[in-house]
Write a structure and sequence with these properties.
6 strands; 6-stranded mixed β-sheet; Rossmann fold; 215 residues; globular; alpha/beta
């Protein structure tokens, strides 16, 4: 509908960064400042090409290298303001940084069992909780909403961050976050109309056809 009764639509493109060597080797990288590897850059290029016609007004990115690099590649088609936000950083995994999942079977076996049973109630050793990640990521989304009532904006972040944002939008309890998958260089489309969020596309990786994709 045109005129004064036209509904304002804010379109939020939420993406995950491309692959790093630590992703490839299944290491917890948390907030370690690691950049994309060759495949990660190819994934980011494919993501950028898929979004080249999206009329972005601004890009917000985690300040961690792999996210910034992905955002910069996307921005080559748009040349808009690229703003970094600490709230979009990946979860602080504390003592797990640099470890692989198999490393948790020994010294951290009790924690790992608690994490599997109820991830919402546990804190990463010397790190964060998922609740804290959700709160800081959501504050960035609220900032976006305050600044933009319509148009398209892009957020470039990380696995846990994206999962927490999507949990909030869908009303999914944090304990069930594993039901929401976020593949490397995937994109999600969120629309906000009259204060209500709806998820119109999730974990889209069609643009990565021909490129090996890891979770």
């Amino acid at each position: 509908m045109d005129g004064p009764f036209r509904e304002k639509v804010l379109r939020i493109v939420l993406v995950r960064h491309g692959e790093t060597d630590w992703n490839k080797n299944k290491k917890f990288q948390g907030q370690r400042n690691i950049g994309l590897n060759e495949k990660g850059r190819a994934q980011a290029e494919a993501l950028a090409s898929a979004l080249k016609e999206e009329p972005l007004k601004v890009i917000y990115s985690s300040p961690i290298a792999r996210a910034v690099e992905t955002a910069e590649i996307i921005n080559r088609y748009h040349n808009v303001s690229l703003e970094q936000r600490d709230g979009l950083k990946e979860m602080n995994v504390g003592d797990f940084e640099g470890l692989q999942l198999k490393d948790l079977a020994g010294d951290y076996s009790q924690f790992f069992q608690e994490w599997l049973e109820d991830a919402a109630s546990v804190r990463m050793p010397n790190g964060e909780t998922l609740q804290e990640v959700q709160e800081r990521a959501w504050s960035v989304l609220e900032e976006v909403v305050d600044d933009y009532s319509e148009g398209s904006v892009l957020l470039c972040a990380h696995n846990f961050v994206n999962q927490m944002v999507l949990c909030k939008i869908l009303g999914v309890k944090i304990a069930h976050f594993r039901r929401i998958r976020q593949t490397l260089a995937a994109m999600n489309i969120i629309e906000r109309i009259q204060g209500v969020y709806s998820l119109t596309c999730t974990n889209d990786t069609c643009h990565l056809k021909g490129i090996d994709v890891n979770p």
